[in-house]
Amino acid sequence: MSFTRDEISVLSLADDLKRVANFIKNNSFKNVEIFTTEATKWLEESRQIANPSIQKILEKIEKTLKEEDNINKAEDLLMYSTLLQNRSI
After folding, report:
1. Measured at the alpha carbon of residue 65, what is the angle toward residues 60 and 67, in degrees to the nearest 5?
2. Contact (CB, 8 A) for 87 and 54
């Protein structure tokens, strides 16, 4: 199975969002910072995708990544990660 560049960027973003959420839950804030940076890079690359439903999710992800690191943020990032995976496959 071969993925397009758009699918790779969206799936990579989804994976990094899961990592951020898990590190928030484990209080590993150094890793939260590292993977938030990575997620932000994939977020910017994903902005080129023309799909309006993905663009709406990306806008919400951008806002969520700027929030304080807490359990609500972690839960939201897990939800967005799942939504991105479902729309990209």
Report:
1. 100
2. yes
Cβ neighbours for 16, distance < 8 A, ≥ 6 positions apart = 35, 38, 39, 42
Q: What is the pLDDT along the chain (89 residues), one digit of tens a residue?
A: 788 999 999 999 999 999 999 999 999 999 999 999 999 999 999 999 999 999 999 999 999 999 999 999 999 999 999 999 998 87
For tokens 């990579």, name the residue. 12
CA-CA distance, 47 to 59, in Å (whole number)? 9
